[in-house]
Amino acid sequence: MKVGLVAASFVLAACSTGEGAEPSSTRPTQREGVTTMDPRTSQAQLDQQLRDAAWANDVPRARDLIRQGADVNAKDDTEQSAYLIATSEGYLELLLLTLRNGGDVDAHDSYDGTGLIRAAERGHWRVVGALVQ
């Protein structure tokens, strides 16, 4: 319960600053320009490459992998997805890319926390603001 109250406080603080959030009208739910993936690359490989790009905050690489069909919500065995990585690490540009490509704001990590909770706990106010909007 205490974590929920702390997260709610962070959310309210982020809402009052209005920092860096992209308007929700610019977040389409469909993927940007999906292209055909190399038949030698499996879906699991694409998804892992996307998570690797997310950890590196390599937005151009992530964009390319998403175009090839990588899933921004695909989780590894530790319950990490590109979307959740963007929230926990405070990577705003990557977060916006994942949201434009179907990032699941209701996704939970291995601790049953959402991306909003992860961002708020780590003080990533711009990410929190984007998620609230």
Which structural traits does this protein have?
133 residues, 53% helix, mainly alpha, single chain
Envelope shape: globular
What pattern of helices and strands is seen along the backbone? Answer: HHHHHHH
How many individual helices? Answer: 7
Mean pLDDT across residues: 81
For the largest beta-sheet, the strand count, sense and barrel status come to: none
Overall radius of gyration: 15 Å
Number of strands: 0
- The unreliable regions are 1-31
Strand content: under 5%
How helical, in percent, are the residues? 40-55%
N-to-C span: 24 Å
Query: What would you call the structural class?
Result: mainly alpha
How would you describe the overall organization of this protein?
This protein is mainly α and 133 residues long. The protein has 7 helices and no strands. The model is unreliable at 1-31 (pLDDT under 50).
